[in-house]
Write a structure and sequence with these properties.
Length: 281
Amino acid sequence: MPDSAFPAEPVVRLAAFVGILAAMALWEVLAPRRPQAIGRRARWPGNLGVVVVDTLVVRVLFPAGAVGVAMLAQARGWGLFNLVQAPGWAAVPLSVLLLDLAIYTQHVAFHVVPVLWRLHRMHHADLEFDVTTGVRFHPVEIVLSMAIKSAVVLALGAPPLAVLAFEVLLNATSMFNHGNVRLPEWVDRILRLIVVTPEMHRVHHSILRRETDSNFGFNLPCWDRLFGTYRAQPEAGHERMTLGIDRFRDPGELRLDRMLLQPFRDDGRSRDATDQGARSP
C-alpha cells in the first residue's frame, strides 16, 4: 500500500489544521459566546497534547491513512464505485456524503454502546467548550474510528480525492462547530441548514443526557433531522447550560495523563446515574 495517494497530503492536512485552529482561537478572543471559568492554560495543554498522541498512534498503525486505503481500492478495483465505474463527478460528492453518514452512525454508536461510551466520554468530559474540544478524542477511539472509516472507504471504493476532501472537511468542521464563538442569530439560523454550527453542536455537550444524545452531526446537519436526533436549543439556554458529564469534574482531570486513563476508571455507577436530568418523561 502506498504511503499516501497524494505526496502533499500531510502538508495539506497540517496547514488546514493549524490555519483553522488559529482562526477559531482568534475568533473566540474577539467574539466569545460564553465566559469560561477554566482558562486555556489549564485546558489547552491536555487537549492539544492528546492530538499529538492521536497523530503518532494513527501514523504507526495506519501509515497510509484513509487516503492510502482509497488508493489501494482504486488500484485493485475494489468497492462499489470502482465496480460500477462511477464517474468522478458522481463518485466524489456521493462518497463525501456517505462517509459523513458513516461518521454520524459511528457517533451514535459511541453513545449507545457502554464500552464505546467509556472511550468517547473523554471528549464530553471537557469542562469548557471551545475549538480544542473539537480535537479532544481518546487515542483508542481514534484508532477504532480510523478502522471503521477505512472499512467504509473500501466498501464504497471512494476516490482518494473524495477521502482527502472529507478528512480535511471533517477536521475543519469539528473545530468550527466546537468554537466558543458568537454568531448573529439570523446567520446561525441559515447556516445550520447547511453545516453544523457551534450553537447547534453545543447542545450535544450538555450535562443532561437527553441533550447529550442529540445533535450528533459533526459536518452535515441533515442526519439529525432525518433520524430524529435534532434539538434546536438547550433547555437552560446557552449561557446557563452546564457542560460536560457529572464525573471527572475536578480540574485536575484536564491533565493529559488523567484524560488518557479515563476510559479505564469508573466510580461504579452506570451511565444512567450520571444523567442529573434523566431522560424526558
